[in-house]
Amino acid sequence: MSAQTAPDLAGGLPDGNPFAAASDLPYGLPPFDRIREEHYGPAFEAGMAEQRREVEAIAGDPAEPTFANTLEALERAGALLSRVANVFFNLTSSHVTPGLRELEAAVAPRLAAHSDAIRLDPRLFRRVESLYARRDQLGLDPEQLRLVERYHRDFVRAGAGLDAGRQARLREINEELSQLAAQFSARLMADTNELAVRIEEEADLEGLSAEGIAAAREAAAARGLDGWLITLALPTQQPVLASLRRREVRRRVHEASVSRGGRGNEHDTRATLVRLAALRAERAGLLGFADHADYVVADQTAGTSTAVTEMFAALVGPAVENAHAEAAELEQLLLADGQQAPLQPWDWSFYAERLRQDRFEVDAAALRPWFRLEDVVEHGVFHAAYELYGLRFHRRHDLPTYHPDVQVYEVFDGDDQPVGLFLADWYARDSKRGGAWMNTFLDQSHLLGTRPVTMVNLNIPRPPEGSPALLTLDEVDTAFHEFGHVLHGILSDVRYPRLAGTSVPRDFVEFPSQVNEMWALWPEVLANYAHHHGTGEPLPADVPDRVRAARAYGQGFALTEYLAAAVLDLEWHRLAPGNAPAVDEVESFGEAALARHGLSFHLVPPRYRSTYFSHVFAGGYSAGYYSYIWSEVLDADTVEWFREHGGLRRKLGERFAGQLLSRGGAVDPMEAYEAVLGRPPRVEPLLERRGLTPVG
Predict the structure, then answer these.
(1) Residue among 387, 482, 561, 640 flagged as catalytic
(2) Measuring CA to CA, which of 47, 148, 552, 605 is 20 to 30 A from 596?
(3) What is the pTM for the complete model shown?
(4) Total structural domains in the chain?
């Protein structure tokens, strides 16, 4: 940071900086209307200085380490830094500006070094180690014991037990990794925006709905362009490919999608991702692990990367075999359409959608009028949350937000007591990264007296002014999915912030959100929200069954593209130290990895190629993308449990919330799972859902 953005703030922030004190808004909502870009730099500096003083007092305390003077003190430390970091990093994903991006590049390595200074302080580690050694003699309750174990594990995994020389190298690696992740994110966002496909003739958009065409025109106008603009979503397969009739336009969209980050321009991500993989491998070696995957998975419910590859091996064969059979069917449709063989990757979604329409009489685009955004959210997502957990959501128009699109809801429980806030940011824009995600501005903690302030981001195309936002069925599922994460945060009921909400292993965190998807098509929920936006007529009663049948088709493609991405993630992170490929070998490395796992099927490219795999090179999923399918085992089993016990019942919701959602990281996740279902998980429901074994 420059001298202009990093003044000496040892005495604290001036009162005019909105981060100087805890927000006086309801639930501690950040005062977005008062926060300016110039406030972040000084607040980061003051926050780090304040936490250094707090940690120094803890580490240098001459008294014998106790739970209160060490771990509770650490849990209370860093309030200012948390305030600014939670706002800043939410906005660098949701509404970034060039100034914020520049500051992120400067502050990321500073924060990494700051974190290392705490985790690698030998005095602090001795105190944590002393508590860990005496944990059974301290009279701790289960949550306190869990916190002791978690802190000790965090410190050891951070390198606290290494000698000074290795710690010094570890600090260097962590600083560079933080810079590289920010760089990958910035380059990918820039290349994604640059590669949006410009359409000059409206006829080339044949097949898109009127709303889709209007949204494309508005996207072009927003950039000062004539014509229409097809912006790119994060995955390889672009949603518009299911609708665009003109094969050449589909090709252009697909090729734009798969070229992101690999074009040799200033936005190329290959050198960045190779360096990330190399440094992660080196760090794992310093910490005593064979590779980064082993380092990551050791702290997950899977336990070892071998367990992950064994799961892949069981799924790859059936997935790819089904995908080949699906491809043969789709090529027949292509030929019947008068098109020239062979089937191409950009043809798949279009003909798969046509097959679903013909075979199952489900036209996904034709269903959109029944899925108005406001109805899906307020009468679908919120309705299910009320029926299961007693939660009610009241729109607040009097609270500030960071963007006009953002909606704020106050949340109340079944006893009409306030719970927290939920912020919803639904629409795509150039300043927002791709994909969908949940995050928090403030976590629940009885120790700190804080209640949750959660948020969800989707990337729904903005409708033309005066038109409703109509969702695809996939977008409906995504809304329910991300809200499952919100429930994990909103229903949190723990004392210590380190254990709150979604602070669970990465391969468990997706489980509650995947379970929540089940309510999207649950009869009582669907009947409450799926009404035609123009006529008010309900969705025809036979549609859900036809949708389920249509979704059962295409699992070969869906599972193959997912497994291909998960394998890329795992193989990049199973590299031994010093074995990273050259920059010009990124594509061949990926192709070889897919071939080794039996996933080299050109018609089904990975859901994310390496050059735009934001989850693992800019997010928190490195060596963890497998967690979606790992969590789906638990999800499918839990869905069956709900069905067997009556479905949308408050009694079941209270059990799920009380035993699992509310406990966050305060309990062992698999113990929480078994407390709900009364038994270990079964894999059969997943196999049946995916069509890998006969049903019944």
Answers:
(1) 482
(2) 552
(3) 0.89
(4) 2
